[in-house]
Structures are given as C-alpha cells and as structure tokens.
Write a structure and sequence with these properties.
Helix content is 42%, strand content 17%. It is α+β, with helices and mostly antiparallel strands.
Length: 249
C-alpha cells in the first residue's frame, strides 16, 4: 500500500531555493576537477562575482560538501585559497551515518527475506512516490519535462545523471552515493531502481526503467528506459536475464 503524506515534504531534494542551481553548478565543478580550484576560477566558470562565488563556496564547506586549502606561493603575495569537492560517500560524517544505515538495512533484508531484491525494489518504489508530486491527470503528459524532473531529482540525490540518449531514454549516473554498500549488497541497486520507477509512476509517465547496469568503469551506472506502464517486481541488472514486465494491474 502506498504511503500518502498530507503535508509538504522537504527532503532537501524538492526545494527550489534561490541558491540551489548555482550551488549545484559549483558542486559539479568541484566534483569533476582533479585539481583544487580558486575562487576566481570558480567565479569565471559559473559566471558570478568573486565575492558571491566565495559565499557559496564557504557555505558548501560548512555543509561538508567541499574542502578548503591554502596554496603555497613561489612569488610574493597573499596565499591563494582553493577548494575541492567531497562526495557524500567520502568525508562528511552525516553522509557516513546514512551509508552505515543503508548497509545495515541491506544486510538485514538480505538475511531475512527469501527475495531481498524484490523487497528492496518495493521499498524503493514507495520512496520514489514519497519524494515526487503526483502528475495532474487533467494535463497532457510531456515526457521531456518529466524526464528532466527525474534527472533533477537524481542529481539532487547525488547520482550526477546525464541523459546520453533520448529515444528511448538512456541515462548515465556518474556517481553512486551508496557505491560501497552496493558492492557488498547488490540488492541496493533494486532500491535505486524502485525509486526511479516509483517517481515515474507518480508523475504519470509512460516510461519505466527497464534495465540497470550498475558499477560500470569509473563508478558509473547506466539506466535504460522503455515505453511501458507495467508493474514489475524488480528491474533486471547487468548479467541477469531480462524480465518481461507483467501487465499492469
């Protein structure tokens, strides 16, 4: 049974605050660079005044999403301050706590259920519905906008998605916030799959996640979508036999 919430849910991924887009852009730059970036470098790439860029960078440091270091100089002058990004799977103690909780949950499910993948997929589906507002049945479905909404949601959850094909949609996740847990307990991937399909169902999309290819080189994960509104018990992952969806009930 789906869990319906009568009050707005503010989970850190549904808001549209004035700083969200800029900080997401900065986080991406910090995450993707191999060398620390200075305030001026960030400001130029994002298109912000240096003082505004510094404000956002310091806020990210305070939130545990970036680190600050002072660079030594070989010439006279003030030392420059540079920044690097930290992913939730790395240093932030709150993220470490969530990762530990995820591992405990996955291990418990794997030991206590005959089909842990099916159970985790069901939990993920409810999670996806919980995080997503219901689509308006009186309005025509715009699949392009719904796909963008889904990508925004995945980006806010630190999967760093990129749409690499649109017909049919294929998305590449450049980061998995639960990578270590998924390596130990592959059923974690079903939690992710269920979340995606729960969100698509709640938005009234005509697409569903049809296959998930986890742990590709470079910590990437590929999601393949197909035209379908069928309900499944789990999503096939790389190396498993493709499951033909049953008819929607």
């Amino acid at each position: 049974m789906a869990v319906k919430v009568e009050h707005p849910v503010f989970d850190g991924t549904t808001g549209s605050g004035s700083h969200r887009g800029r900080r997401t852009h900065i986080i991406r730059l910090l995450r993707d660079t191999k060398e620390p970036l200075t305030v001026d470098q960030i400001a130029k790439r994002v298109g912000l005044p240096p003082n505004t860029a510094r404000f956002h960078l310091e806020s990210l440091v305070d939130a545990g999403l970036a680190t600050r270091e002072t660079q030594t100089r070989s010439t006279p002058g003030r030392p420059k301050v540079a920044y690097m990004g930290t992913l939730p799977t790395q240093t932030h103690e709150r993220a470490q706590g969530f990762r530990l909780l995820a591992e405990i949950m996955a291990a418990t499910v794997a030991q206590s259920n005959g089909d842990a993948g099916e159970w985790m997929y069901k939990v993920g589906t409810e999670w996806g519905r919980f995080l997503t507002s219901r689509g308006d049945s009186s309005q025509p479905v715009d699949e392009t906008k719904l796909l963008r909404r889904l990508m925004d949601k995945l980006d806010a959850l630190w999967f760093a998605p990129e749409v690499v094909s649109e017909d049919p949609p294929v998305a590449l996740m450049h980061n998995c916030p639960y990578l270590d847990s998924a390596r130990r307990h592959i059923v974690m991937c079903q939690l992710h799959a269920g979340m995606i399909n729960g969100s698509l169902e709640e938005m009234r999309s005509g697409y569903r996640l049809a296959r998930l290819r986890p742990m590709l080189p470079g910590h990437k994960c590929e999601a393949e979508f197909a035209k379908s509104t069928a309900r499944v018990l789990r999503v096939p992952t790389e190396g498993s036999t493709r499951q033909k969806p049953a008819s929607a009930s």
